[in-house]
Amino acid sequence: MPQADPHAPLRDDVRLLGTLLGETLKRQGGEALYLTVEQVRGLSKAARAGDPAAGRALGESLRALGAEDSLPVARAFSHFLALANIAEQHHRVRRRRDYQRDPAGRPQRGSLEEAIPRLLSAGVEPATLARAVRDLRIELVLTAHPTEVNRRTLLQKHNHIADLLSLLDHPDLTPRERQGLHESLYREITGLWRTDEVRRQKPTPVEEARAGLLVFEQTLWDAVPRTMRALDEVLLHKTGEPLPLDAAPIRFGSWMGGDRDGNPNVTPDVTRRVCLLARWMAADLYAREVDALRAELSLADCDEALREAVGDAAEPYRALLREVKLRLERTRDRADALMKGEPPPDGPHYEHPDELREPLMLCWRSLHATRAEAIAHGRLLDLLRRLACFGLTLTRLDVRQESDRHTEALDAVTRHLGLGSYAEWTEDERQAFLVRELEGRRPLVPRDLPCSDAVRDVLDTFRVIAEQPPESLGAYVISMARQPSDVLAVELLQREAGVRRPLRVVPLFETLDDLQRAGDSVRQLLAVPWYRQRVHGAVEIMIGYSDSAKDAGLLTAAWALYQAQEAMAAACAEAGVHLTLFHGRGGSVGRGGGPTHAGILSQPPGTVRGALRITEQGEVIQAKYGLMGVALRNLELFVTATLESSLAPPEPPPPEWRAVMDRMAASAVDAYRGVVRGDPRFVPYFRATTPEQELGALKIGSRPARRRAGGGVETLRAIPWVFAWTQTRLMLPSWLGVGEALAQALAGPDRETLLHMARAWPFFRTTLELVEMVLAKAEPDIARQYEELLAPPEHASLGEELRARFQTTQRAVLEALGQEQLLENNPVLRRSISVRNPYVDPLNLIQAHLLSQVRESGDERLFDPLMVTINGIAAGMRNTG
């Protein structure tokens, strides 16, 4: 019988972990530390409850802490927030299992059991649904960015704690077993406390890639076949058609080791090594799996085809798989040797997935022929599903570079050959030159071209691309793409490097101006006959959420992204070309983050059509795929949301809704840019009141915080831009400009239309709900305390204005949503935030004081406690960057 309060177990877990952390503090830090932490916690809770005296006492007690004393206090609060996150993640798994355990209950929203029957009841034909599932092509592209502040060692310990919480859920535990699990939790928490959580060196791109690939071994290796089993079962039951063996609705890409846009640490050699690393890990995982399969397949009977392959072996399956395992080990050892620059071992190895599929299918057919289907549908089926998804590389690596770098390379070539300056040519002249060269046969780029290091890096990157097996690489993404010549330039550079199977070239539109011209840009590109022939009826375009929001503000960027997708889809439809959109989303709302299911369902109708690529970045990878149950849920949501958006898209917005959005977008961008670009106080205020300057010095990512040295906000990457504001909890990039636009519309003739839009338009309601979530997490009074400590007095007026804008935004969002309070319809999240706030607040106050001391003294000893506060606040805020 279900509990009256399904969230009581979460509170029990948080209480247990908090108690064990307190015991750890007493044992490891001493009674004095424990009492200090308890005093701070009590004052923080009282201040949150509205006691101004407690707030003053809290500030005074934290201000009195020296650097040495502030470190353990910050660590205590940081660890509590991390433990609360673990409990919440585990509770998500628990709730999913609660739904699945109750056959009489309503299925969980967005689950396969809920979505597929709903689509059928809405009129989708079973055959249409089965075909749509077979044709699904969802690719999750993992990226490394400097917002995953936790060390890998800590993340592994966090996963161990989640496993122990899972064991505690077993209803048949004896008292001794339960006590043993509590002791194990205490040991893990003690281990956390005794582990240094501060990175001492910046990770290299190869180290980032290695850490990113661990999620495959950790969860995805098993989550993918389990998801496919569930999909196959529901599909067969509801449509009568099974999921084909070679179907791969979900695949994985990566930017780790391929994204060189503004990161000089990603060299051609790094890209080569990361490709080998992925092949090494894939071969190692397959070898382990084949070894386990050999142990199972002790059968003596087989069909004639298998007998012919292995001769008179007593155990034919084992004989066949012995050779498969040896070849996989040789494949792994070959990749290892090449990574080390050593000669690879002799002997046959696997180059293509079909080579591995062949013996596995031989086993599959033989088991079916000998009435051993039940065995075939166990580990062997899972292995075939993995092969369809992961190939021999686990993930395909994208390469990304800025368009200006390609222009610079071609300019060096044309100048050397006496053809003039490519960089100075018009767009028509560039296109004519590029198409002429692409249609011709002559080699263009001399091998010994005299050039700068930057140009050499570009040319060498294309040579590395040419050396890789085609399966290792995915797309070539062009940042700051603006015109057809940007795409044609990459096509020519690929040909000149001898790339046998050219990567698909994906322009990335990311500023407001580029998004507004995206439809025309795609139409012009498709008008080039050579290009139309090259793409074979399918193109991929990437849209950037991060830089567009940083450029124009969240509301204006969201509407520009929506319209750009519509315009590009229309241009492709006119040309009879299938469009796949690649969504460059970050973890935070200010960078396009938010709930997966709602985000996909709010896309413009006709823009998904069974194909979707999307980035999964930084801390989001661990949050969404670090635990098996959470990974299963997220993979399921991608499948169901993509199906629903493809088969039952929302109605297009009527003209009057568009007109309101146009007016609000214009108002929002004026308000946003008026502050960020137009107010001379803003950049000094931003740099003074946030840890933006210090983030660049912290060793939390291989990529520099800025695209280039100096400059204002425009040179700062979108990630630290959002991350810095999240640390001070003003969360400015996710709401600035929204309030003015909404308030203006609500006060005028657009009011009723806007209220109807908020109820009936998934895109607009999702946007409002994301802003609502940010507003609920934000704390302008905390930001005020940073300002009082760190900003020159002459900038205090700007802080007051920003807080006034925040209040305007909050009132307008509530009015548009028809609510009295934030998160009125999401009590679970509202409670989660209220539980966290008393633990995040002290970290903010400690951080503000540390920033003041660091800037005054330059004492590097203060960086450890500062880093701990950054970890803790990031843990408390969750979607940080």
Main features:
881 residues; alpha/beta; eight-stranded parallel β-barrel; 8 strands; 65% helix; 6% strand
Polypeptide structure, described:
This protein has an eight-stranded parallel barrel, surrounded by seven helices. It is built from 37 helices and eight strands. The protein is an alpha/beta fold and 881 residues long. It is globular. The longest helix is centred in the first third of the chain and has 35 residues, at 67-101. Helix 2 packs antiparallel against helix 3 and helix 9 (205-239) packs across helix 10 (268-296).
Summed up, what is this model?
With 881 residues, the chain is an alpha/beta fold.
What does the average pLDDT come to? 92
- β-strand percent reads 5-15%
The computed structural class is: alpha/beta
**What ranges have pLDDT less than 50 throughout 5 or more consecutive residues?**
none
Question: Could you outline the blueprint of secondary structure elements for this entry?
Answer:
Layout: H1 8-29, H2 31-48, H3 52-63, H4 67-101, H5 112-121, H6 126-135, E1 137-143, H7 152-168, H8 175-193, H9 205-239, E2 250-254, H10 268-296, H11 304-310, H12 316-339, H13 353-369, H14 373-390, E3 396-402, H15 403-416, H16 427-439, H17 453-467, E4 473-479, H18 484-497, E5 504-509, H19 512-516, H20 518-526, H21 529-535, E6 538-544, H22 545-552, H23 554-575, E7 578-584, H24 596-601, E8 611-617, H25 619-625, H26 628-647, H27 655-676, H28 682-689, H29 692-695, H30 718-728, H31 738-746, H32 751-760, H33 762-777, H34 780-790, H35 796-817, H36 827-857, H37 863-877
Parallel strand pairs: 1-2, 1-8, 2-3, 3-4, 4-5, 5-6, 6-7, 7-8
Helix pairs in contact: 1-2, 1-4, 1-8, 2-3, 2-36, 3-36, 4-7, 4-26, 4-36, 4-37, 5-9, 5-26, 7-8, 9-10, 9-14, 9-26, 10-12, 10-14, 10-17, 11-12, 12-13, 13-14, 15-17, 15-18, 16-18, 20-23, 22-23, 23-27, 27-31, 31-35, 32-33, 33-35, 34-35, 34-36, 36-37
